Amino acid sequence: MSQVSYNCVNSVYFVGYVNIYWNHINMTSISEETIYNIIEKIALGRNLKNWRCSQEKFESIAQNYFGVIIPVVLTGEENGKLVSLKLALKLAPMDERYRVSGAVTRMFAREIYVYSVIFKKYEEIQKNVSFTSSYIMPHCYYICKEYCKEVIAMQNMCGEDFKPFTSDMFLNLEHISIALKSLAKLHALSYILKAREQTFYEEISKECLPLTIDTNKRYIDIMLDRLGKAIKKFEDSEYAPLFESLRENCAKCFEVVVSKGGSTCICHGDIWKENILFKYENGIPTSACLIDYQTTRICSPAFDTLYLIISSTDSHLRKDHYNNLLDTYYHSFDQMLKEASLNSANTYSRQMFDQDLELVWPACLITANTALWLSSGLQEEGHVRSKKVWSTPEEKERASNSYKQIIKAIIDDFSCYGYLDLKSNCFCF
């Protein structure tokens, strides 16, 4: 008889897990029956005999604002052999009260599309080409697209010894280098797919639309709100006019990333340290697995790259290694294209990449401002609130000052790179 082993201890843990991720809303509990039904479908799909599953704990927990993730292990007999599948069940809110904006619904639909369509194609490419180093994708075992029952059952990469980076707010040189190499492979696979299956790529482009005020007005509105908050934080400073210009041109900042950039591909869209897992050998990161593909979209590769660097490293590291980091990214990108018999000079040249960096920085700064405001514990209202809760005026003041210092450093670095002239606040549109 097939069975699922959930006991009181596991149930208590699950409640704690929900509180970590959904402490900003009164989300209804996900029943054990719901979990059982998901696991049963996976077991039946794999033809597992005498199967059972148990709930696991993640050793470390990274941020995730738009989903509940439940780690389980499914074991059973497959073709006479005992198999054990380490799974992560990612579920959307099942109560319609928390779906009124449509944002979560769209995000889950996008991620489901990535796992069920795009990654299947990438897996085919990597099977047919002997890459020196492949792009790491969690295997997808089951998907449900039904409204308020959405679920993605994927390989639990933590069970494969991948871990989130939790020891510091920013990545060090070793970690950011590994992350950039992984991002470069993701972008390269998109160009390879485009070169080999143009019609299919165009179909993907219709699903993974660029970020504009028409495709995601709610997200644009959130970024506008955070820019308004930044203006108040930076009032009477040399940075205030820049934030006012960014707010005035916010939608256009994202439109030009696609319309005026040298080239576009299928990008992650929200690639920062909280969406990366690392694998280690003797304490040194050797590979990375990118996660959370809810914002995957057609965009400039330069946007993903620059956003990852500014959101996930501190200014000291950037001052010493910025150009080397760009070289690291592009070398990995170029190498993967060559191994697929593509010429990067004709596909997306280094010159185009460098020119696009000068174009995408406003959109990167706007996005980083939104993310850092949230991660600093400064967002106290709305559906998506900061998980850090500051209880005293002193704590809030320290968080505010930290946020301002990080944002200032990003702007000052952009000025040093020649992307920005603070005196003119001129955008190269």
TrEMBL record:
In Swiss-Prot or TrEMBL terms, this protein is called: CHK kinase-like domain-containing protein
- State the InterPro entries in the record: CHK_kinase-like, EcKL, Kinase-like_dom_sf
Q: Where is the CHK kinase-like domain?
A: 152-339
Q: Which organism is it from?
A: Manduca sexta
